[in-house]
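Practice problem: predict the structure.
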Amino acid sequence: MREKNRRRIKLGFVFVFVIFAVCTLFKPEAGAENLKKPPLPGKMVLDDPKNHNTESAGIQGTAPFDHERHAAKDTCVTCHHKNSDKLTSAMEEEVKKCGACHTKEGTDGVSKSKEAFHGRGTLIGCEGCHKSREIEPIGCDSCHHK
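Answer:
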């Protein structure tokens, strides 16, 4: 009888240990919920006077931007040119925002935010990309809505 009780106790300990081990192995790491990747933005508003992205934000009106539509046509680094070529919609790395480098005043070797958004003469920026590809909208009033 005593031997049966010992065996039951041992099995109970083994059972509890196995359950604990399984729970520990399959438990998400602490803070894993914070590592979830943010969803890709859909429709956005550029040149919003509330955000003051440029020194003249909102003077010409806001500029709606369909990020999802653009992301389907180009690679991410077309616009997010400071990210690596590996950046895709899976967001393997942190996406650098334009304002991280392009400030209202600009700095040596880095264009002002307004110039960067427009991107005249380059594919990095709305106006330059649309003009070089002959895609509407092109021009102030066709982008900026008052």
